[in-house]
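QA checklist item 7 of 12: single-chain prediction sanity check.
[x] sequence parsed
[x] length recorded as 269
[x] structure emitted
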Amino acid sequence: MAKISIEERQQYQEKIKPYRDKIVEIAGREKNLLLGIQKEPANTAFRRLTLVDEMLNLASFQIVISLVSQTRLKVKEENALNDGRKSLYKSIIYLEEVVSNYVDVPFSDYEEKLAEIASLTAAKRYNLVRKMGLAINLLENAYGDNTKWRWSFVEMEGRFAAAAKNIMDLKTAVVNTDPRSPDYEPTVYHLRMIKKLLNQAADRYREKYELSTNRIDDFKQGINFLGALRRLLMLLGDRDEAETVKKKLEIWSQKLEADIKRMEVQKKV
């Protein structure tokens, strides 16, 4: 690795100063919003959604700092990336506080939580989760394929998938898939995203189980995401797709049962 000169370091610091300033500003706004929620804990959903957006902006600036470092200094700025990862987690947590973190449950189990954001349009819901998905992709790309955080992203992606599903009002989703609905386009795009994310989360948890942890809990979580996908497809009336997912669920469940028996035998040996 080539040695970085003092001049190069100074130029880098000057380049990232605007981003550093933005990070300080956002951190201040986050603190004020949290203080406001603490003082007035009722009807906080929209303030928490503001926090979701603020944390996504914060993560974006932190990712940009790392990209500038790679471009200018040919060095990956791990501290900035780790800060970005923490900011994204906070963004997901703030969203979960509004819409819940349930994976495979009936809509009625968390429907009440969405009542406070009933006035939030389908387009705004979709745009928020699309922004979150983009930020996660940017962060993963910035870390690269060989990062030690590779498997921790499975949890982040899974929690994002659940939150992206839970922010949608599934009571109106079927109606809004009618081309005559004013919310047709964002609803269709949002549903397409949710299906992809749930299936991806399932596959990633299975991959984590097979290639890394060998923990039954990871395999079970993958099955939970498949269950959530099938539940959504049934609600939407997509019976062919739901049947395909059902078959996948059955195969995975059989594999899980066989693996549990195998592990129990190995313990006795």
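[x] summary fact logged: The chain has two domains: 13-99, 101-143+150-259.
[ ] second reviewer sign-off
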